[in-house]
Design a protein that fits this description.
This protein has four helices and two strands. By secondary structure, the protein is mostly helical. The chain has one domain: Orthogonal Bundle (434 Repressor (Amino-terminal Domain)), CATH 1.10.260.40. A two-stranded antiparallel ribbon has the order 1-2.
Length: 80
C-alpha cells in the first residue's frame, strides 16, 4: 500500500485520518506520515491495510495502470 492508495481508500470509505487511525490502532500522526510518503514499519502498514480490508477495501496491484483500490464486491463502507 502506498500513500495514494491510502488516501483513495479513506475517501472511498468516507474516513478522515482520525477515523483510520482509530480503526488501525495507530496515531493520526502515523497516518499523516504515511500519506506524506514517509517510510513506516511493515507491521504498521500491515495494521493500516488490515483496517481497510476489514472495512471492505480491496487493493489492486499495478497492472499497467498503476496500483489502486476499490470497494469489495457486495460491500458497503463499514464504521467510522
Amino acid at each position: 500500500m502506498n500513500a495514494i492508495q491510502c488516501k483513495m481508500a479513506r475517501v472511498a470509505l468516507g474516513w478522515g485520518t482520525r477515523d483510520l487511525a482509530r480503526n488501525a490502532e495507530v496515531s493520526p500522526d502515523t497516518i499523516a506520515r504515511l500519506e506524506r510518503g514517509e517510510q513506516l514499519k511493515s507491521s504498521t502498514i500491515d495494521a493500516i491495510r488490515l483496517a481497510f480490508e476489514t472495512a471492505g477495501i480491496e487493493f489492486i496491484p499495478a497492472n499497467g495502470g498503476g496500483p489502486g483500490v476499490r470497494l469489495a464486491r457486495n460491500s458497503e463502507p463499514k464504521g467510522t
